[in-house]
UniProtKB/TrEMBL annotation:
Pfam families (UniProt xref): DUF58 (PF01882)
UniProt domain DUF58: residue ranges: 185-259
InterPro entries documented for this protein: DUF58 (IPR002881)
Name assigned to this protein: DUF58 domain-containing protein
Amino acid sequence: MKRAAVLLSLAAVVSATSYLLGSPAAALVGVAIMAHYSLARAGFRPLVKVERHLPERGTEREPLKAVVKIENLSSLSGIVRIRETSDKAFARELKVFLRPGERKYLEQTVVPQAKGRISLRAGAVFEDELGLFKKDFPVIESGDMTVFPSPKSIREAMREKRQIEALSEAEKALGIGAETLDFEELREFLPGDDITKIDWKATSRLQKLIVRVFKRETMADVYLLINVDPGFHRELKTGKTDYLVLIISQLVAYFRRFGHNVRVIAYDERGVVKVVDHVSDPFSLIQELGLRGEKGLPALRPAAISGGSSLGRLVTRLKGGSEAHGIMKAALKVPTGSFVLMVDDLGLHPGEIMKASRLLQRRASRAALLYPNPVFFVDKGGLNEEELEVLYKAYRERKTVMKKVMAWVRVIEVGPKDLLPVVVRKL
């Protein structure tokens, strides 16, 4: 119960007692209590200015120090309490006594609970010395704060999240050849296989993981649309192109292992560069495509999604030989009703990828996009805080663009660790 309520209740009890007992002294006490309360209430006019200065950058779930300036601009003494009201951070409550005209500087420990660009809000409460009255005041904040993911949270997320098995997910995204109930063979387990298909008796006998393979309804042709433009292979140091060589080799080996015929259409910004039918050897395909790294700064921030013209008019102009991006021309070479896997960076030309996906959809083809995110290939060890902030902004912008592209095509985002080592060793 608040002190003011206790005081008013006491005055009411004393007044009732004086009435029942007919005691003038008790009545005077009740009147004195009410007079004291009224005078204190009328004189309670506090004015407090509170400012909080937060660091511009912080790390998720790691404490940082904020400087709080508190100034009493009234003629009252009292206690000021400062609490964090935002759910995006945890902050230690501050409590300080201020005399009239007094100014104090305090340190507050703040622990951000969210990532990205966040706005923190706090509230201040002024309470008189007797604890009878309170008044709320806003806290003036210095501005928004950028919070980076902590290494600990990243490690925890990686432990909880199943690593993307890019090749198996690609096949599921395309929906190639649904499984039947007819048994076909036993084979060694590969990363990406369904663990419910493990044959435990054969595994125990052979001392290695063995899975049951069932026949599929169709063994369809798979078209790989691969961007071979130098801009796609631009990198600060070797690594990304080597990864692309590995992942393309794995794609060919993986689909051929399950009986699919693989066809490749390579393109750049201007048009189709090469068409390879009936790919049988991943190594010969890599040599034929001539993939090699290009030194330079990769495009980390995504391009804007252009509006463009309607799909029908665009296809008409393409057939007439007009200029268009290479991925559109590559999509036109895919037969109706095919399975298509595009290997490209959606950040370079998201609008063209969406148009090509719509075109393939209209031609009754099923498509997916294998998207090597260049942000994942940047060496973050030697970056300072400003460079990390730029990298994080690029990552968030790419996530926003990816959500828009996923409205038209299934996107499989991959990084340097999304490999199938067993398949690589068998190539």
